[in-house]
Amino acid sequence: MRSFVVVGNLATTTPDFSLEDLPGTSGRIDILCRCINSAFVLSHGIRRDVQIYLILRGGGAPKTVRLQGRDLRHLNPDERTTAALLKKALALEADFAWTKSTPGISVRAGDLADLPIRAEGRTYYLREDGSDHRGLPLAGDGTFVLGDHIGLSEEDEAFLAGLGAEIVSVGPKSLHADHCIVLLNNELDRREGPSHPAGGRERATKGDE
Questions:
Q1: pLDDT digits over 179-198, tens only?
Q2: Is the full-model pTM beyond 0.85?
């Protein structure tokens, strides 16, 4: 399972925002919506081997929304529809157990440090000054942590350092978080494809037998 974690430093933890003015009323949940679409949406389908955790810190106690591709339904490419799904999830009472909102979407109380990242394989922190991802043996079942337009705090970075997270970059220029997710998905797709020496050549050979 390929995992992404996006920290929304100002993203509201309540459903009290306008779908007609996401940037102005939601603490930039529009950024998180774009990340969701970049993580899951294909030309004619949804990635089923991807999940994304959204950390929302804009008001009261932090909340985490989880979307899992294997169960996800009703996701369309537009931000408004995606925001409506998040709005429904945030209307639920949230404690430290996952509460299902719609198929593939759950919400719980908690922050970045409350995620079981350590149990889900290798962890990567996306930052401009990191090592080039193309020269690294990225794990297809890894967890990739990104900040929003504000970035991650010193406390977040200390937490990730404690997990032994590798700091990686997708290129020499600073990009939006959703663009980084697209590039990571593409890189991992290529590595897992039948033509890549570290990817699916063995699977393709078995399929021809």
A1: 999 999 999 999 887 755 54
A2: yes
Half-sphere exposure of 29 (CA within 13 A, CB side): 32
**109 phi, psi to nearest 5 deg:** -75, 155
Residues 6+ apart with CB under 8 A from 165: 123, 124, 125, 145
Residues 14 and 88 sit within 8 Å (Cβ to Cβ): no
Contacts of 205 (CB under 8 A, 6+ apart): none
Torsion of Cα atoms, 48 then 91 then 80 then 16, to 10° = -150
User: Does the pLDDT at position 55 exceed 50?
Assistant: yes
